[in-house]
Structures are given as C-alpha cells and as structure tokens.
Prior knowledge:
- This protein is an all-alpha fold.
- It has a domain at 6-45.
- It is 51% helix and 0% strand.
- It contains 2 helices and no strands.
- It has helices at 6-20, 25-45.
- The termini are far apart.
Amino acid sequence: MGSLSPWHLLLIAVVVLLVFGGRGKLSGLMGDAAKGIRAFRDGLKGDDATPPPPAQPLPRADAEKDPIVR
C-alpha cells in the first residue's frame, strides 16, 4: 500500500511530461492566464474621464392607459 508500482510511476511520468514537457506548456498556460487577468482588470478600470449621464425618470404608464370600465 505504501509503495509505488511501475504503473503508478509510468502514470506520474506521463503527467509530468504533459505539464512540463515540450516548449514550456506550463509557462504558456500561465502567460495566457496572466493576459486574461490583465484584460479583465483593464476592463474594470474603464474610462473614468467622463461621468455617466444622469438618470432620467421613466414615463408615467397610467397617463397613457384608458380607465378600466366595469
């Protein structure tokens, strides 16, 4: 129960090769994640130079309706 069989070691080696192997897949994934976070933060900042327009009241709905006749 405490020892690793050859199958366990093979599976660990495959996972390590998938994560760290090739041309820096892990660093590529982290770079993409950092770009996404940076874009999200820039989107939150927005353009604070112009204030939003003031809110306008909604038109009265009862002025346009006919009275209910019973």
